[in-house]
Design a protein that fits this description.
The chain contains four helices and five strands, in the order αββααβββα. The protein has 142 residues and is α+β, with helices and mostly antiparallel strands. The protein has two domains: 36 residues, no CATH class; 100 residues, Roll (Nuclear Transport Factor 2, Chain: A). A three-stranded antiparallel β-sheet has the order 3-4-5. Strands 1-2 form a two-stranded antiparallel sheet. Strand 3 and strand 4 form a beta hairpin. It starts with a helix and ends in a 5-residue tail after the last helix.
């Protein structure tokens, strides 16, 4: 029996075995844009990393706990914790690609960090760059 992903791939017009997804964009032509192949995986991984766990009632484990590292000391222990969280969450929720490397750079103001994740998928390599910082996850008023 085919998986849901296989059914989606075979029933999407023009997909020819490619993975497709739709992402919301602000554009004059419409509210959604089609993304394909590697971009689908990068979008999925970014969503996993930026979604706090316990956000979805139907699946409270979905997402990551990277926000918990925002105010941690900028040291090797924190970097290893961040890397382990990334590996665990991405391989648990979307293992279509492989992580080749993870670089963590702390922000100068000390309120977050920038991630650069090397991704390999079907003999192609890309980099997912994303930032985790305080104002994304915490509601501070200026």
């Amino acid at each position: 029996m085919a998986s849901t992903l296989e059914k989606f791939k075979s029933n999407t017009v023009g997909s020819q075995g490619r993975i497709l997804d739709f992402t919301p964009v602000i554009a004059s032509s419409g509210a959604f844009s089609i993304i394909k192949d590697f971009d689908v995986i990068l979008n999925s991984w970014n969503n996993i990393l930026l979604t706090k766990t316990r956000t979805y009632m139907s699946n409270p484990e979905y997402g990551s706990d990277l926000y918990k590292y925002i105010f941690e000391p900028a040291d090797e222990v924190t970097i290893e914790g961040i890397k382990e969280e990334i590996r665990f969450r991405l391989m648990k929720y979307d293992n279509r690609a492989y992580i080749t490397n993870i670089d963590v750079a702390f922000m100068a103001d000390g309120h977050g960090f920038i991630l650069s994740i090397g991704v390999e998928y079907e003999d192609s390599n890309e980099t997912l760059n994303t930032a985790i910082y305080d104002k994304q996850f915490l509601n501070f008023e200026s």
